């Protein structure tokens, strides 16, 4: 069983890592690094809002290239941002986050600071509406998935290699994390496409 699971994690990592990017944003405080991923073949990227919120210059690095990126939206409420680069790109298909439950196995591909893209593996441990007295805008997945600095905004994948969420917060100094479900992220993207602005529920 362990060997079969390891083989599947390796397969998903090989298939999806080219669609994961390193995000570098420059603001008045210096340079911030994070991770992100292409959600379609036309250069649309999901990442963490905190990386680019006040950025004056944003670049994405992937496949040995560095491209300028436009910030289409940085939504503090959901914790995500949507960027755009002018390129044809690999992408990660969106999975059904409504099928995710406690004990669902998940993996992440992200860029720790100054390192190459790497995978992490864990399981969903909870479906949280609040944490430490603070309520979320929607239910978040809590996963026993180790997180390093620079991996904020990374895709969370099911074992089919579909994105089911986005890393938006570390817990206990990176021992676990909170994940925004893709259903909530797609609501942000669809609002932007349909109305040109966000329309929170």
What order do the helices and strands come in, and which of them pair?
Layout: H1 2-16, E1 20-27, E2 30-38, E3 44-48, H2 49-52, E4 57-62, E5 65-68, E6 70-75, E7 80-84, E8 105-110, E9 118-131, E10 134-143, E11 155-157, E12 163-171, E13 176-181, H3 182-195
What oligomeric state do these chains adopt? single chain
Low-confidence stretches: none
End-to-end Cα distance, whole Å, is: 42 Å
Number of H/I helices: 3
Query: Could you give the order of the helices and strands?
Result: HEEEHEEEEEEEEEEH
Structure notes:
The chain has 3 helices and 13 strands; from the N terminus they run αβββαββββββββββα. The chain has 201 residues and is α+β, with helices and mostly antiparallel strands. A 7-stranded antiparallel beta sheet has the order 5-4-1-2-3-7-6. β4 and β5 form a beta hairpin. The radius of gyration is 16 Å and the shape is globular. The termini are far apart. The model has no long low-confidence stretch (mean pLDDT 94).
Short description:
This protein is an alpha+beta fold.
Name a few traits of the molecule:
201 residues, alpha+beta, 7-stranded antiparallel β-sheet, 13 strands, globular
């Amino acid at each position: 069983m362990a060997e079969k699971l390891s083989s599947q994690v390796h397969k998903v990592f090989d298939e999806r890592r080219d669609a994961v990017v390193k995000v570098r944003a420059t603001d008045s405080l210096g340079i911030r690094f994070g991770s992100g991923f292409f959600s379609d073949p036309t250069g649309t990227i999901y990442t963490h809002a905190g990386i680019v919120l006040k950025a004056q210059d944003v670049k994405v690095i992937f496949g040995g290239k560095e491209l300028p990126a436009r910030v289409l939206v940085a939504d503090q409420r959901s914790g995500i941002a949507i960027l755009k680069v002018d390129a044809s790109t690999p992408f990660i298909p969106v999975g059904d986050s409504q099928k995710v439950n406690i004990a669902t196995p998940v993996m992440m591909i992200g860029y720790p600071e100054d390192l190459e893209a790497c995978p992490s593996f864990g399981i969903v441990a909870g479906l949280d509406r609040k944490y430490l007295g603070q309520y979320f805008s929607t239910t978040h997945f809590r996963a026993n998935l180790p997180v390093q600095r620079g991996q904020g905004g990374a895709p969370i994948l099911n074992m089919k290699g579909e994105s089911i969420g986005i890393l938006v917060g570390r817990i206990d100094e990176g021992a676990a994390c909170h994940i925004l479900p893709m259903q909530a992220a797609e609501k942000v993207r669809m609002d932007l496409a349909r109305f040109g602005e966000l329309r929170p529920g």
